Amino acid sequence: MTAATNNFNPSNVIGQGGFGRVYSGVLTDGTKIAVKVLIREDKQGDREFSAEVEMLSRLHHRNLVKLVGICTDDDMRSLVYELIPNGSVDSHLHGDDKKIAPLSWEARLKIALGAARGLAYLHEDSYPRVIHRDFKSSNILLEDDFTPKVSDFGLAKAASEELTGHISTRVMGTFGYVAPEYAMTGHLLVKSDVYSYGVVLLELLSGRKPVDMSRAQGQENLVTWARPLLTSLEGLDFLADPDLRSSVAPENLARVAAIASMCVRPEVSQRPFMGEVVQALKLVCSDMDVEEGETSGASNSVSSPEAKAKVTAASTSRQRE
């Protein structure tokens, strides 16, 4: 890893957080990698390292970042991933990549569908089923063609054997994305991830951050501000990212907004499962001739016809309002 990252040169740093740093590198065979080096003395980091290795060794999906290997010694622990070259959704919506070119509507739909597929795989098709617990726009990395890859499984937890069941755990995650039932009770469900996904979908629609204290009073929290605007075309016109308003038909915004609205419902029982979200977004992409990418991995295992119809009907009725 020392050779691959040019002796962990600071110029190779592509990310940094409480866990440590991420370096870009190149293996001897030319494979481009990202090396996540964790802080050794941090016991929480030890747990996150073990959790991430265990989870990623079992997970294989087009829309999840691929673990290439691990390195451990007395001084360093590192995870070696495939290098995803095009930054994160967060960077493209709120950071340096936005300054280069804002995300198109087609790219946003592709990201929304691919990320939904990744979460649906975790919730419904992996064994054991997995709750990500820190799903957010900075943890969705992008290929050059905007294929999304869900990353960072350091906080992931195995889900309850019952899809609607919960596990009790210390509240972790990122402010603005954490579902209300999890924040208030410590009860974690797969639908806690669904709420976080809904926040990301609102980011894609509005171009706003989940929490932005520079906004006017009452507009700091994205979900709180957006909820009343999701119920009418007039509200959606106000909510929509200015970079999208002239290029997207209001009815198409409304269909995606209806899905986002269901995902961020305060009541857990009223949120869809991710497999249902995948099916609803596939219809939107198909009707708009947006490239979906690979279709394998979308789960139908727990998505009842009635539930799918509910999600689809909601997006259709919103379109007509």
Automatic annotation (TrEMBL):
SUPFAM superfamilies: Protein kinase-like (PK-like) (SSF56112)
Family recorded in the similarity comment: Belongs to the protein kinase superfamily.
Protein name as annotated: Protein kinase domain-containing protein
Positions that bind ATP: K36
Protein origin, superkingdom: Eukaryota
Keyword list, A-Z: ATP-binding, Kinase, Nucleotide-binding, Serine/threonine-protein kinase, Transferase
InterPro entries referenced in this protein's UniProt entry, alphabetically: Kinase-like_dom_sf, Prot_kinase_dom, Protein_kinase_ATP_BS, Ser-Thr/Tyr_kinase_cat_dom, Ser/Thr_kinase_AS
Ranges where the Protein kinase domain occurs: 8-284
Region (Disordered) location: 292-321
